[in-house]
Amino acid sequence: MDKKYIALFIAIPVFLSCNNNDPVNPNREEHVYVAGGIKSRTVSGVWIDSTFIKLTENPTHTLCTSVFISGEDIYVCGSTYGGNKDVQCWKNGNPLSFERTDYNGLPQYVTVSGNDVYLCGQIKEKSDAAFLAVYWKNGKFIKLENQKASLASAMQIIGSNIYVVGWARFPRESAMIWKNGVATRLNSEAYKSYASGIKVVGNDVYVSGYTLDSLGTGKALYWKNGVEYNLTAPGVNGAATDIFIDGSDIYFSGDLYTLDSLYTPVYWKNGVVTTLGDYNTNNYASSIFVKNGDVYVSGSYGSKERFRGVYWKNSNKVELPADTTMSSYTQCIFVK
To answer: Cα(177)–Cα(163) distance, rounded to whole angstroms?
Structure first.
């Protein structure tokens, strides 16, 4: 990374700790971190309170997928597309070493537990092989599936237990949860299903996701301890893309959409939906975070030809600075 970006990356958290931009509550010190990219996905990085920090650039394609804050440290993961996809993870702007195969690696999520850094996603071991769900611990990958096409989309570490969610093909895609490497299917093969996020609270395991039938009809839902609960009403198409639990309140980000591919970003709080925009071809909500009662949702807004990376705070849209002649996008939000 360019030295000027490293210096800016290191300086920003210190700068932010001395400033407050919240006009509603001047004593509040909340800072918003959003992983994503600009310039039609040829430059990726993280916005820190709307200041974009470039982490990598590639003329083909680059993708920052997740951000996590541990203490004063900022972790971001992603991949760069060339002939292959390189596994990438940064700590405070400095690259960490993560194992990959000779072909492809695509991390989706980063989290930290104690001194251990975890990623999850997928790898490809041979050019003609399927992508396999994996997670990485301190740079080394552990396969969750050995043969089935699969993806690990999110994870959480609770004590000595490692929870990972995603999907595997049986031959239809089926939502999965792996606990310490042991796989459990969350749905039958009657229709496709996908798990997108996980939160473990006490003895309860919550997983966000969605299903798709043969007609392309989707249903936003979640599983609590393996039992399925719908978020969308009959006849309403949708998907749940992430989950956050704050005390007794359960939040989900997601989308509602029409069969002609028009989408509107939404979030649910305890099953009640809040719409964040109108219907368009590239409106979506990717991630959700709740801090001090405020609801933050990352996503994009705009048309198929050009869309903007944004986030919403309590339903108020914040456009993230980027080249307005090219599309930008967001994948994950974290608030500290």
So the answer is: 7
- By the 10 Å C-beta count (0-12 exposed, 13-18 middle, 19+ buried), 279 is classed as middle
> Distances from the Cα of 87 to the Cαs of 77, 203, 285, in angstroms?
8, 33, 24
Amino acid, res. 5: Y
Q: How far apart are CA 48 and CA 36, in angstroms?
A: 11
What's at 79, amino acid-wise? S
CB of 30 closer than 8 Å to CB of 20: no
Q: How far is CA 260 from CA 136, 210, 231, in A?
A: 38, 18, 21
Token pair listed for 264: 């509107």
Report how far apart the first and last C-alpha atoms of the chain are (Å, whole number).
25
pTM for this model (two decimals): 0.90
Question: How many angstroms separate the CA atoms of 217 and 194, rounded?
Answer: 14
Per-residue model confidence as pLDDT tens for the chain (336 residues): 333 333 445 444 433 333 334 434 445 579 999 999 998 878 999 999 999 999 999 887 888 999 999 999 999 999 877 555 678 999 999 999 888 766 678 899 999 999 999 999 999 887 778 899 999 999 999 999 998 999 999 999 999 999 999 999 988 999 999 999 999 999 877 789 999 999 999 999 999 999 998 887 899 999 999 999 999 998 899 999 999 999 999 999 999 998 788 889 999 999 999 999 888 777 899 999 999 999 999 999 887 778 899 999 999 999 999 988 889 999 999 999
